[in-house]
Specification:
Layout: E1 2-3, E2 13-15, E3 22-24, E4 35-43, E5 52-60, E6 70-71, E7 75-81, E8 89-92, E9 95-96, E10 107-110, E11 120-122, E12 128-131, E13 142-150, E14 160-170, E15 178-179, E16 203-204, E17 211-212
Parallel strand pairs: 7-14
Antiparallel strand pairs: 1-4, 2-3, 4-5, 6-9, 8-12, 10-13, 11-12, 13-14, 15-16, 16-17
Protein name: Cadherin domain-containing protein
GO molecular function, one term: calcium ion binding
Subcellular location: Membrane
């Protein structure tokens, strides 16, 4: 018995010359080589003339779910502005693995804890993360989500992996400035010189808490 196209196949199979039993000689890996074509020859040891026949054996290696999903990035970071419309697409998560399609059919979901308090959702098929509620930086300035990718493998079973998603909410100037006092009362002498400072007022805006002039 010998490989017909790829000599590597000779390393994976052997044949008993007496019984014709073909057995594996080493572990198979579909991701390395998924098909082996072998030429098998039988001789009858006849006398005075030996006769032989040839057949061809094609071995197809079926897939075993032996790869875990791998995300395109180990960690995702994105910034969005507050007061976005519901349904806004924040980013897309994607994971792949080396198995056949039947064992690499990804489903995505947000895990608890860290699902964003219901503010975000993920499309289970496309991996698109969207807003499902308004975001307000004054309430929450950062969200930390955990996304799981599950390959739905059948043999021997599904495999999954997770990735972190960090979403920062950027400020939108939606707060009016506020003075430090609601009302100021000042007494000034009538003979005060011109350009005499009588008071310094200050105000702040809630998002930044920085003094305004």
């Amino acid at each position: 018995m010998e490989a017909l196209f790829d000599e590597r196949s000779n390393d994976y199979f052997s044949i008993d010359p007496q019984t014709g039993s073909v057995v594996t000689a080493r572990s198979l890996d579909r991701e390395t080589k998924d098909t082996h074509v072998l030429k098998v020859t039988a001789s009858d040891h006849g006398s005075p003339r030996r006769r032989s026949a040839t057949t061809y054996l094609t071995v197809t290696v079926s897939d075993t779910n032996d790869h875990e999903p791998v995300f395109e990035q180990p960690e995702y970071r994105e910034s969005i502005r507050e007061n976005l419309e519901v349904g806004y697409e924040v980013l897309t998560i994607r994971a792949t693995d080396g198995d056949a399609p039947a064992n690499a059919n990804m489903l995505y979901r947000l895990l608890e804890p860290g699902a964003g308090d219901g503010v975000f959702e993920i499309d289970p098929r496309s991996g698109v993360v969207r807003t499902r509620a308004p975001v307000d930086r004054e309430e929450v300035s950062e969200y930390h989500l955990v996304v799981e990718a599950n390959d739905q493998g059948k043999d021997p079973g599904p495999r999954s992996a997770t990735a972190m998603v960090h979403i920062t909410v950027e400020d939108e100037n939606d707060n009016y400035p506020q003075f430090s006092e609601k009302r100021y009362l000042v007494q000034v002498q009538e003979d005060a010189p011109v350009n005499s400072q009588i008071l310094q007022v200050s105000s702040t805006s809630t998002p930044s808490l920085e003094p305004l002039t």
